[in-house]
């Protein structure tokens, strides 16, 4: 998991969203918690464009409640505070599902979050 997640995070942080899109399955299930659910590669592709338009994030590897996760941190704060996280499910080398908790800060309150970078 770490190798695949690290590759995904590196591409995302480089804003190489064409390469990130190449990793997602045709039948991907994507949920932006508190916002939207997208199904299939065509719909999910719009999600990456939304991240490309803003610069208030940097991704890091970590754990949320013992589960491998991608941490969404704010590079504008001195401590790079975690402001959300993503849980990614894989099918082989393809991303089969993404749950993005960027807009669900209440999920951070009781979560055990550990950074591994």
Can you give a write-up of this model?
By secondary structure, the protein is of the alpha+beta class. It has one domain (2-115): Nuclear Transport Factor 2, Chain: A (Roll). The protein has three helices and seven strands. The protein has helices at residues 2-13, 17-23, 40-52, and strands at residues 24-32, 36-39, 58-64, 67-73, 82-91, 94-100, 113-115. β3 (58-64) and β4 form a beta hairpin. The mean pLDDT is 94.
How many E strands?
A: 7
| Pattern of helices and strands | HHEEHEEEEE
Integer average pLDDT: 94
CATH fold-level assignment? Nuclear Transport Factor 2, Chain: A
Catalogue the unreliable spans: none
Topology:
Blueprint: H1 2-13, H2 17-23, E1 24-32, E2 36-39, H3 40-52, E3 58-64, E4 67-73, E5 82-91, E6 94-100, E7 113-115
Parallel strand pairs: 1-6
Antiparallel strand pairs: 1-2, 3-4, 3-7, 4-5, 5-6
Concise overview:
By secondary structure, this protein is of the alpha+beta class. 27% of the residues lie in helices and 40% in strands.
Relevant terms:
7-stranded mixed beta sheet, Nuclear Transport Factor 2, Chain: A, globular, alpha+beta, 117 residues
């Amino acid at each position: 998991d770490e190798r695949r997640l690290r590759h995904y995070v590196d591409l995302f942080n480089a804003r190489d969203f064409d390469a990130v899109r190449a990793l997602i399955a045709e039948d991907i299930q994507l949920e932006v918690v508190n916002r939207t659910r997208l199904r299939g590669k065509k719909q999910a592709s719009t999600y990456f464009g939304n991240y490309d338009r803003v610069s208030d994030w940097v991704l890091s590897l970590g754990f949320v409640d013992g589960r491998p996760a991608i941490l969404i941190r704010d590079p504008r704060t001195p401590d790079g505070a975690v402001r959300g996280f993503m849980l990614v499910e894989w099918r082989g080398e393809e991303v089969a599902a993404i749950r993005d908790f960027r807009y669900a800060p209440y999920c951070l309150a009781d979560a055990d979050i550990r950074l591994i970078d």
